[in-house]
């Protein structure tokens, strides 16, 4: 179970080949043809995702690079974090009570009260000076001799009413997203995984070409006059790597909040009592604004057609995983999955492309259901499980494999490394490496279940379903009566020669 034959020094600074390291986890007491996912990725091998655990050091280093950066030390965020949201009920109540307290305090001058209302006009209603309109004109309230009445009126006038609990949850998340983005870009600007970014770019371009050539030969697309439209959609997809733009947007987002907050505080006399108020004013002024989530450090990748975004993790893998077959099986599979999102649709209601083959859809669904039936752990399978995710897994792996096939023509069976199984050594071939990498990038040490509302199938199902590819049987020499092979339906060819529908 332990690897002996290669040197495996992990160091926080030297290049770190996460795929090579992951071979330490392989459980040779389980046959790969029996349950490939759990052979490659045993239960308990990690707390959760292997890749995340393996990259804990990198995350820490990335975070450490920017602890002192302004975006990680915002005054407004500190106030937001310490606002006792359970004690403060709704934001309107808070603003009304604060008005009442000032109104009843004989030390507070009329101008101060007026100024307080003007701030609300400015930040909430976006009015300045005397140009307020209708219900946004609050200054008369300062002249009401009945403070209770005026404060009640104010409470019903400020329309953005939130429970503090909701507001802080919602906004802490927005701050976090902007900071992830900035930390990620900061690390890239520092030279971290820069090559990885261009490698991912290149990978996607190659896959795009491949996919287009497949679509061009897909009978169901041609016969329905949808081939050109599908090719057009495919051409639109690109890896979003404009990190300067992302940085500008996130800095703009955060700095506006911080500036408004500090300005509001500066304009009040008793800063201390007004921190929560000014935090609210600043947030209300930016209420519609969103941070930019295109660079991030946590484990994720997504397709916001036509833009594809990837975690820093995958850039690092693209840069530092030594053998190309290992990159293709892992990052290649993830990139293929994201690219495929543009082209996999529910045949009964396609959204982006004009037509999708019903037979392809049924084939994908059948394979996933069959895999679920064979390998269920805690749970799998659900009626509203989306075709998008299941199908993108399958097409994604096919794309990655086809690049592997081109690159390793004639040397798929070459030895990558040897691993020791009890007393014996076992050779891992390049083709096996490809499939192991797919399992490793998807490896969770936890027993898998279908999460409610999540379109993704559980990891064990995802990996065991997509290796229905003929390459897998070949690579591991799986007998026809093995559990893996028995769980395979006919290969689902989604695009390309031999794709179903119109073939009969
Ligand atoms: C002040 O207004 C409140 C609410 O409108 C009312 O209940 C109260 O009687 C008023 N107090 C005086 C002294 O008029
Ligand atoms: C606050 O959150 C709760 C639970 O998530 C939700 O039911 C409620 O509608 C939210 N309230 C507001 C004012 O957004
Ligand atoms: C599609 O195939 C035809 C030949 O069948 C070829 O002329 C055309 O250039 C191809 N288009 C693309 C985008 O590959
Ligand atoms: C796809 O197949 C299912 C089941 O065979 C059928 O109910 C559905 O009408 C088909 N949809 C289309 C668009 O052909
Ligand atoms: C997706 O996969 C699940 C198994 O994880 C299966 O139950 C479901 O039917 C599949 N859905 C589609 C539309 O492929
Ligand atoms: C598969 O078939 C072979 C040869 O017929 C047999 O030796 C083996 O035990 C079978 N394996 C399983 C898992 O049934």
Automatic annotation (TrEMBL):
Domain Peptidase M13 C-terminal: 327-488
InterPro entries: MetalloPept_cat_dom_sf, Peptidase_M13, Peptidase_M13_C
UniProt xrefs under Gene3D superfamilies: Collagenase (Catalytic Domain)
Domain of life: Eukaryota
Signal peptide location: 1-15
Key words, A-Z: Signal
PROSITE patterns reported in the protein's UniProt record: NEPRILYSIN
Signal in keyword set: yes
One GO molecular-function entry: metalloendopeptidase activity
GO biological process: proteolysis
A Pfam family: Peptidase_M13
Record's protein name: Peptidase M13 C-terminal domain-containing protein
Organism: Caenorhabditis briggsae
